[in-house]
Structures are given as C-alpha cells and as structure tokens.
Write a structure and sequence with these properties.
The chain is α+β, with helices and mostly antiparallel strands. It is built from seven helices and four strands; from the N terminus they run αααβαβββααα. The radius of gyration is 27 Å and the shape is elongated.
Length: 215
C-alpha cells in the first residue's frame, strides 16, 4: 500500500526531527550531522531550529483512533460471542451512516478491515436476516452470519448455556433465601454465593444478547 508506506515515512521523519532536537544539547555534533543528512534541504542549522512544542496533539485524530478502537473491539466481541471462526473474513454493513461515520469509514476502512478481519465494508439501508447488530462509535453496523456459522447449532448452544446459567441463579437464590444458611454460614461463604450469582447473571445476559442477535 503506497499511501500507507508514504504516511509511515512522513511520520517517522517528523518523529526523528524532534528526537534530534531533543538530543542536540547533549550530542550537538552528531545530531547536527544527522539533521543535515536526513533531508534534502533544511531551512536552518539544528542549533537554530525551534524547540519541540507540547501542543502537537490533534484532537480530531485522537477522536478517530478512539472511534476505530471502539468499532474493532465490538466487532471482535461479537465474533467471539457467535463462534465465528478466527480466520473467517466477514462482511460489515454500515446501516445508514451519517456523514461523519461515512467519512471515517473512508479514511480508516483499510485499517478496520485488517484489524477486524473483514472482507468488505458496505453501506446498507437495513440489516439482513441472521445478522448480528453492532452499535459502536455512535453508529450502527450489521455483521451477516449466514454461511459463516451453523445458525441452528449456535442457537441451540446458546439456549442450553442460557438455561444452565438461569438454573444456577435459581439454585443460588434458593440458598440465599434460606435464613438458616445466611445466619450460620461464614460471611465470606455467603459473599461468594452472591458473587457467583452476579457472574451467572452477567453470563445469562450475555447469552441472551447473543440469541437476540440471531433472531
């Protein structure tokens, strides 16, 4: 990718220039030589160059990176929940994206496809059947699952796992509603049961979300 390679060279050059400037007070001759030989032309000697400032941060770039991280994380989470094979290249549908989302997809589509293992990114008016809906970065996406996993088998697996988690919650509720158990058991044992219940509740909630994605 020539565009990516060129961007990398530009960023590396900018970083090296700042490193030379910071090292110049300690290594004046070496950094002056590097400064002169790592660019075709320089407006001045390094000793006359401006000191690196702390106001280089680009808030728009930071927002874009945070958006990319959020979208990639959510796609990876859904892939894991749905047992999508790690090597499978999925398609991602952006559901009626606004102008800001469309622009970000245009700028970062290549990185998004690489990081989230996507075959393509397309614009769509709605999510097709048997697709997982993803809400991330202030936008709505869909990940079609038909052909990537056995939908019926995955539904069955999730239903069984959800039933098991709900059964464990019911069992713990019966135990915690037993006044003799609460009164006689050590405090740490009672607390462990409450923690287990919360863990099963979160698991059941996650499984229910997975089932909803397939319906």
């Amino acid at each position: 990718d020539e565009a990516a390679a060129n961007e990398t060279r530009i960023v590396m050059g900018s970083v090296l220039d700042r490193i030379y400037a910071l090292l110049h007070p300690f290594m004046p001759f070496m950094t002056e030589e590097l400064w002169a030989t790592t660019a075709e032309t320089r407006p001045s000697l390094l000793c006359h160059a401006a000191w690196p400032s702390l106001d280089f941060a680009d808030s728009n770039a930071a927002d874009d990176i945070n958006w990319l991280i959020a979208v990639v994380s959510e796609i990876r989470s859904v892939r894991a929940e749905m047992n999508v094979p790690p090597g499978a290249q999925a398609a991602l549908l952006a559901i009626t994206p606004d102008a800001a989302t469309a622009a970000r997809l245009d700028r970062h589509g290549t990185a998004l496809k690489r990081l989230a293992r996507l075959a393509s990114i397309e614009i769509s008016d709605g999510a097709p059947d048997q697709s997982a809906q993803i809400i991330a970065g202030g936008a709505t996406f869909a990940l079609p699952l038909a052909g990537m996993i056995d939908i019926a088998a995955e539904q069955s697996r999730l239903e069984k796992a959800e039933a098991k988690a709900l059964a464990e919650i019911e069992r713990i509720d019966r135990k915690l509603s037993n006044q003799k158990f609460v009164a006689n058991a050590p405090d740490e044992v009672v607390e462990q049961e409450r923690e287990k219940r919360e863990a099963y509740r979160l698991e059941a909630e996650k499984l229910a979300t997975g089932l909803e994605r397939l319906r």
